[in-house]
Write a structure and sequence with these properties.
single chain; 158 residues; mainly alpha; 5 helices; elongated
């Protein structure tokens, strides 16, 4: 979703008087929206979405749009900061909504693992596959609780 698309979605869902009020926090007599303030809020809402959902806002996804609009309103309230506690409450709620959107629609929690390596069986009892062994030279695992580490060079137990 582009910055402009989130602004458009925000304006379509929030009453015009509220858009004017939120985008002109210092000017109580404003009669028109402040496009620069809306664009900045949209940019910051995108950043919030990426940080908390691990994904980019998608305009075709109603869950993403809903969360993006919530984030944008919270950012605008934070800009105004007439009541810090209210702004922080809205921001916290927006972060929760964005995190939920990331979980529902996929974000950082849905990374699929893939490998092109072949799995090879080994006779030794370590947890490191043969093809990866050289990457772990020098590391030593913690001993099991109440036990001691086995000597990896001792092959008599095999």
């Amino acid at each position: 979703m582009s910055i402009a698309a989130l602004v458009t979605a925000f304006e379509a869902r929030v009453p015009s008087a509220r858009v004017i009020q939120l985008s002109n926090p210092k000017d109580k007599t404003a009669t028109a929206k402040n496009s620069t303030q809306l664009t900045n809020a949209s940019t910051d809402a995108h950043a919030l979405f990426i940080m908390h959902a691990g994904a980019v806002i998608d305009t075709d996804d109603s869950v993403h749009v809903f969360a993006g609009v919530q984030a944008m309103e919270a950012v605008l309230l934070l800009y105004a900061a007439t009541s810090t506690s209210e702004a922080e409450r809205h921001l916290k709620r927006a972060q929760e909504v964005v995190e939920a959107a990331g979980m529902v629609r996929g974000g950082r929690d849905t990374i699929q693992m893939a490998t092109s390596s072949e799995v090879t069986t080994t006779r030794d009892r370590t947890d490191i596959p043969d093809f990866d062994r050289k990457n772990f030279d020098g590391y030593q695992a913690d001993p099991p609780r109440g036990g001691e580490l086995e000597d990896p060079t001792n092959t008599s137990a095999l």
